[in-house]
Amino acid sequence: MQDVPDLNAEEATAPRLVALPFEIFDAPAIAAKIEALAKTDSGASELRKGVLELLRDAQRDARSIIAERFAQSPFDAAAMTSSYTYLTDCLVKTVLDFTATHIAPPRSAAEGKSLCIIAVGGYGRGEMAPFSDVDLLFLTRDKITPWAEQLIEAMLYVLWDLKLKVGHSSRTIRDCVKLGADDFTIQTALLEHRYVCGNTALALDLDRTLKKDLFSGSGRDFIEAKLAERDSRHIKQGQRYVVEPNVKEGKGGLRDLQSLFWIAKYIHGVEHSADLVPEGVFRMDEYETFKAAENFLWAVRGHLHLLTNRPTEQLTFDMQVQVAEAMRYEDRGGRRAVEVFMQAYFRHATAVGDLTRIFLTKLEDMHVKSEPLLEKFFRRKPRIKNGYVVVHNRIAIDDDSTFLSDPLNLLRIFEEALRTGMLIHPDAMRTVKANLHLIDDTLRTTPEAQRIFLDLLLKHGNPERALRRMNELGVLAAFIPEFEPIVAMMQFNMYHSYTVDEHTIQTIAHLAMIEKGELEEELPVASSILQQGVNRRVLYIALLLHDIGKGREEDHSVLGAQIARKVAPRLGLKQDEVDTVEWLVRYHLLMSDMAQKRDIADPRTVRDFAKAVQTVRRLDLLCVLTVCDIRGVGPDTWNNWKAALIRALYRQTKRGLQTGLEDINRSNRGAEAKKALRKALPDWPKKVLKAETDRHYPPYWQGLHVTAHVAFAEMLRDMTEDAIRIDLFPDKDRDATRACFVMADHPGIFARLAGALALVGANVVDARSYTTKDGYVTDAFWIQDSEGNAYEASKLPRLRQMIERTLHGEVVARDALKSRDKVKKREKAFRVPTSITFDNDGSDIYTIIEVDTRDRPGLLYDLARVLADSNVYIANAVIATYGAQVVDTFYVKDMFGLKYYSESKQRALERNLREAILKGVERAAEG
Predict the structure, then answer these.
(1) How far is the C-alpha of 397 from the C-alpha of 388, rounded, in Å?
(2) Is the pLDDT of residue 8 over 60?
(3) pTM for the full model?
(4) For residue 14, what pLDDT is reported?
(5) Where in the chain is the domain with CATH 3.30.460.10?
């Protein structure tokens, strides 16, 4: 197995370079220059202007020095945040001295000592990113005086002119206590107050009073407010570790760490996070994890601010590439630098989740409200096995030494949690996480360990919960070391919404839901397969291992199959089960690719797929695995279109495997389709109906549903050569609108139709083109709106009007599409290399050209136009989109009705297609 990279190696070896204070801001020198300006006696306005220019220059130079030093030591977040804090302190002090001396001098010495400036919030904590807010408290002993008002106003105008984002309040000590008691946001800001300048005695009084009158209680209300705030923030940002995380507000971000420290500071009165160790909040190793995560996240936030030149908090795809480069990550082992960086990010975020859960859940236990007596009396509690106790409705360990004397208990505790339906106590989690070394090769091959693990998957109906907690605590990777490389591994594309490990858990969650009958209406085929019975051990283990080979240079399906052959026996599977798991992992993308990238109406597609699958038993397993895999990609990935494709491929293949592959040939399909059409048009005269069934070639009958055959029959009846007929049908069962076109055949018609549809913003997901024996084109396109749905009925008239205008030549697609060829900024970060393949074996009568490239508006039109200009006849096109990537598959013949066997012709076509793609990329770059 490939060694797991040390994701913190860059951090550990990065140099630490700290700029000296006078290098950042030489306060005495600046003060001397201000005094020199004041002596010129040029008037208050000119003096203010000169001082502002002086401070701007000093600020610019200081920021440049800090940014330069940070670029040299990109992981030294502590130096970066303290340097920006120091610079801000210097600016605030200098502005106070200047305004109090030259703009609004006090009328007496006593009045001059009646004010002090306190930093609050993040600025008070001494942690500032390049564009952090500057939160100031102007503190007075008594009611604010006119002089203080004048001074504060003058200061603020100078600070604003320096482009500082200042948040400010003017209060007495009594105001701070009163307002803080009523508002937890104010209370939190005051919790981290810090004296900056002014009357020190006043600042000390504030400190004493806040400790005595505001922060002396149990903190229960404050804790509950912070926990509620955390929960609402996670709901807003996303409960899972999303692929474009918010470094500050997202799950596992800086705000989670800060919430943890705020509560600890409130309860224990600590000033620094290091004080949490002697207070017993953290063990030393947990504190080191806390500091590493805090440093990493602050470093990321600092680079984000500097790269965008504004207070950016979200790591969008385009910024991930730039931050990875700034932090000097490099490509490694088949993975891009950005993927290595994001895995480090998610591992730190997961560590933050571990720490906050352990600490905050313990606090929840401390402050848990009592159950009502009646509920406590009537509720039946599950019996806990020996060795465990229940603490505040959570499973806790009775005695750590007894628990650890049998390493199998590190697995049994998850089984007990699932059996009882209870959560695991945070102290028990800490014990488990601290003793992962006990899970060794001996334990991994113990029959009892295999039994426990398989029961976690198969027995209790909620494997997702156990797997996610085991993954978060490191137990899953300890028990299956091959799983370790994919933990927190990001897939740098717009298709996957989750990290690889989370995607794996999501697929298993979907399988459990199907088994419980929760998706029977939505997934009738997969549900019926499971109801009839499959080998559940094989299916669950195959899903657990299907992406285990990701992140290496090799094909992840091939490598994953090799890993599965080693892991599956260790999990207690028999040899025939191991063989099936290995096959499922090796070919877990086969059904998805066949359904989405090939024409499943072509008998050859089904025959080839059936030959690969070989048995109905494998087909059943692969179908369920495919459904779970697609649904586990993201919340909006699965749709009725994909469902219809998977169902059709499954049913046709099963029929072929059960009754013989010849049962799905062209002639059989054609006869059935004609029979269905006659039944659907009972009122048509036999002579007219026979003319309709005779006018089409065999491929027409196998490629369309009877509803499309009826639509074309109606349009072709009494058809004239100059007419253009359009039928738009919202096929909501497939989440697509079927657009049928009939017109006189002429070269390039497919490209014109693709252009017309691109102009109206339609996304083509499938297209079929047929020519009648009497010279008409019958083309069917399945299109979706920008949200991936069928067009609403109210939008169809305008859609029809726009299409008709284009087909009549009123709008030229080639020109009109140029302005739409823009690639969104966040998508430009993705590398989507173009791959073009020619397959003469996948269809009996067509050459299959597969174009895999970056998606963009008008791409299908550009490709179809190139093929038309090369005298290529397009029979149909299948379009599969995966985020920023698209695979356009064309079934084609040459002008003589033959396949493209000639390598020279293939090379010429590929060259022309690549040129069209490149021109589109250049237009997009210009946009």
Answers:
(1) 5
(2) no
(3) 0.83
(4) 52
(5) 9-216
Q: Do residues 536 and 458 make contact, with C-beta atoms less than 8 angstroms apart?
A: yes
The answer to whether 893 touches 870, Cβ cutoff 8 Å, is no
Among residues 742, 733, 746, 769, the alpha carbon closest in space to that of 860 is found at 769
Superfamily holding 221-332+346-360:
Nucleotidyltransferases  domain 2 (1.20.120.330)
Distance CA 160, CA 525 (A): 64
| Helical ranges in 746-858 per DSSP H | 749-759, 796-807, 813-816
Helices (H), 660-795: 666-680, 686-694, 698-703, 706-716, 749-759
Measured at the alpha carbon of residue 88, what is the angle toward residues 35 and 80, in degrees to the nearest 5? 130
Percent of the chain with pLDDT over 70: 90
User: What value does the mean pLDDT take over residues 636-664?
Assistant: 85
Q: Higher-confidence residue: 21 or 155? A: 155
Neighbours of 819 (CB within 10 A): 10
Q: Residue 332: what are its φ and ψ, rounded to 5°?
A: -150, 125
Helix (H) or strand (E) holding 874: strand 873-882
Supply the mean pLDDT for the chain: 86
Mean pLDDT lowest among 402-416, 441-455, 764-778: 764-778
Q: How far apart are CA 334 and CA 313, in angstroms?
A: 29
Express each pLDDT in 598-637 by its tens digit: 888 888 899 999 999 999 999 999 999 999 999 998 877 8
pLDDT digits 0-9 by tens, 472-516: 899 999 999 999 999 988 876 556 778 899 999 999 999 999 999
Mean pLDDT on 463-476: 94
Q: What is the pLDDT of residues 877-893, one digit of tens each?
A: 888 887 777 889 999 99
* The residue to which tokens 């009328």 are assigned: 107
Is CATH 3.30.470.20 the classification given to domain 9-216?
Answer: no
CA diameter of the chain? 112
Q: What phi and psi values does residue 166 have, to the nearest 5 degrees?
A: -95, 125
Residue 731, H or E segment: strand 724-731
Angstrom distances, CA of residue 80 to CA of 19, 77, 165, 361, 739: 9, 5, 19, 32, 59
Q: Where in the chain is the domain with CATH 1.20.120.330?
A: 221-332+346-360
Q: Is 136 helix (H, G, I), strand (E, B) or coil?
A: strand
Question: What whole-number distance in Å separates Cα of residue 760 and Cα of residue 740?
Answer: 16
| HEC string for 322-344 | HHHHHCCCCCECCECHHHHHHHH
DSSP string, 830-870: -----EEEEESSS-SS-EEEEEEEE--TTHHHHHHHHHHHT
By C-alpha distance, which of 302, 292, 271 is closest to 82? 302
Which two three-digit tokens encode residue 418? 């699932």
Given a contact cutoff of 8 angstroms between Cβ atoms, the answer to whether 116 and 195 are in contact is yes
> Are the CB atoms for 27 and 93 separated by under 8 Å?
yes
Model confidence at 327: pLDDT above 60: yes
Q: Return the pLDDT at 619.
A: 97
Q: Compute the distance between CA of residue 138 and CA of residue 339 in angstroms, rounded to an integer.
A: 46
The answer to whether 241 touches 251, Cβ cutoff 8 Å, is: yes
The more confident residue out of 902 and 272 is: 902
CATH 3.30.70.260 domain range(s) in the chain: 685-926
Report the relative pairing of strands 194-198 and 423-424 from DSSP bridges.
unpaired
Residue type at position 265: K
Task: Provide CATH code, domain 685-926.
Answer: 3.30.70.260
- Contact, 359 vs 283, CB < 8 A? no
The helix (run of H) or strand (run of E) holding residue 875 is strand 873-882
Q: Which residues contact 726 (CB under 8 A, 6 or more apart)?
A: 739, 740, 741, 800, 803, 804
Given its phi and psi angles, is residue 2 left (phi above 0), alpha (psi -120 to 50 degrees) or beta?
Answer: beta
Would you state the torsion angle of the CA atoms of residues 486, 489, 490, 496, taken in this order, to the nearest 10 degrees? 30
